[in-house]
Design a protein that fits this description.
Elements lengths: L1 E4 L8 E11 L7 E4 L8 E12 L7 E3 L2 E3 L2 H13 L36
Antiparallel strand pairs: 1-4, 2-3, 2-4, 5-6
Protein name: Pirin C-terminal domain-containing protein
InterPro entries: Pirin_C_dom, RmlC_Cupin_sf
Organism: Nonomuraea longicatena
């Protein structure tokens, strides 16, 4: 995109917006901008490419850690173990290197978070 764009959003969905390249207002390189339900559009200006994803908000609490999303600490432990074994996550083509190792889990159990969060923008 080059200029100004206002893609429509489904107000019932939550959305994520990720800058792929270039410079667009309101988007930091490498950061996923969260757009809560209730928005019908988002205004972008500048020159660049962005990925917009969206869907119905999760009704349940979730645990997010590194590249994994689960329902509880045990899910994350199982996902990390599968990742470490090289199982269940597919293959990346065109990359000539080893898979990124998952970091060690924290010393305390991971806790789910609810739907309440502080949102800016």
């Amino acid at each position: 995109m080059d200029g100004v764009a206002e893609p429509p959003l489904d107000a019932a969905f939550e959305h994520g917006l990720l800058l792929l390249d270039g410079e667009l207002s309101g988007l930091a390189a490498g950061a996923l901008r969260y757009l809560p339900p209730g928005r019908e559009t988002v205004r972008l200006s500048g020159r660049g490419r962005a990925l917009l994803i969206g869907g119905e908000p999760f009704a349940e609490e979730i645990v997010m850690w590194w590249n994994f999303v689960g329902r509880d600490h045990d899910d994350i432990v199982a996902f990390r173990e599968a990742w470490t074994r090289g199982e269940g996550f597919g293959t990346v083509t065109g990359f000539d290197g080893a898979a990124l190792p998952a970091p060690d889990l924290p010393g305390t159990p991971l806790r789910p978070r609810g739907r309440e969060r502080q949102v800016t923008g």
